[in-house]
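Project outcomes to date are best conveyed with an example. Our students and postdoctoral researchers have been running inverse folding experiments weekly, and each run begins with a structure described purely in tokens. The record below, which covers 284 residues, was selected by the lab manager from last quarter's runs and is presented without edits.
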């Protein structure tokens, strides 16, 4: 990077025909300007200036180098301006991976408003419970329930989401009402694939239960009707069942592979933090 910084300094000296005046423009000591021009001449292997006590003039090689450096710096400034504009008016495609139910219940009501605010941003949404590889897959951001197991990922909490366990009156009449977490082991539980139930106590503690049942799926929207038809107990968003309960909560996180995010991804995550329901609603 030093050669590019020295290029800019070289152009200022050439325009001013003076080390001293260039130093004043750049706010640098005159000695620093002289030293860095000498470094640049060593890097390119040519003398760029003829120096005298009264004047600094470009050599023949210096004039050729000046034309090229001036063009490179102008293009770099243009690129910087375009990036600055992009930061102010984000655009491009956000590639996001998130659970189906989260998208249906929480994201879909927000997308129209977000799109009006940022008309230049488009979405490619992969609705799946599978954990995307944020390093190897073409994914900008993933939304997942609970803290990530991979500690190298950047996890930002975007909402507190609650769950309840529900079953139809018919099922509870036939099989009884579980009273303790371990009671669930003898019940027919409608569960998500590779997702043990984590029950959060009101005192803040939690307990994972390896439940079993007749049905396993990767979409909670399928399990809900099965529970309504008396097939078992399902862990569901309290907003779906409208339970008059104070459910336990878990956090939803936006996961990225780095903190250095393009503006389009940064404003999307900021929007979710600001606009998602903050409170005891949701799913896990």
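After processing, the design step wrote out the following sequence:
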């Amino acid at each position: 990077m030093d050669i590019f910084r020295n290029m800019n300094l070289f152009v200022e000296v050439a325009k001013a025909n003076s080390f001293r005046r260039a130093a004043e423009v750049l706010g640098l000591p005159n000695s620093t300007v002289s030293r860095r021009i000498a470094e640049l001449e060593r890097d390119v292997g040519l003398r760029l200036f003829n120096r005298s006590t009264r004047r600094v003039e470009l050599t023949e090689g210096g004039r050729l180098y000046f034309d090229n450096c001036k063009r490179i710096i102008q293009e770099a400034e243009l690129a910087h301006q375009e990036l600055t504009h992009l930061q102010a008016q984000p655009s491009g495609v956000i590639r996001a991976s998130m659970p189906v139910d989260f998208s249906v219940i929480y994201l879909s009501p927000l997308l129209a408003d977000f799109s009006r605010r940022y008309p230049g941003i488009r979405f490619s949404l992969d609705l799946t419970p599978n954990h995307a590889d944020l390093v190897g897959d073409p994914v900008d951001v993933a939304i997942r329930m609970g803290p990530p197991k991979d500690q190298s990922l950047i996890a930002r909490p975007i909402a507190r989401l609650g769950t309840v366990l529900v079953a139809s009156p018919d099922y509870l009449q036939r099989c009884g009402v579980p009273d303790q977490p371990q009671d669930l082991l003898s019940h027919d539980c409608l569960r998500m694939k590779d997702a043990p139930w984590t029950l959060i106590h009101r005192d803040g503690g939690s307990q994972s239960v390896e439940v079993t049942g007749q049905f396993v799926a990767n979409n909670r929207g399928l399990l809900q009707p099965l529970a309504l038809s008396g097939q078992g107990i399902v862990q569901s968003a309290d907003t779906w069942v409208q339970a008059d309960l104070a459910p336990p909560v878990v956090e939803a996180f936006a996961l990225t592979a780095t903190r250095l995010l393009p503006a389009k991804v940064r404003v999307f995550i900021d929007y979710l933090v600001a606009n998602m329901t903050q409170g005891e609603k949701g799913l896990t």
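Residues 24 and 34 are 13 Å apart (CA to CA). The chain has a mean pLDDT of 82. The training component of this project remains on track.
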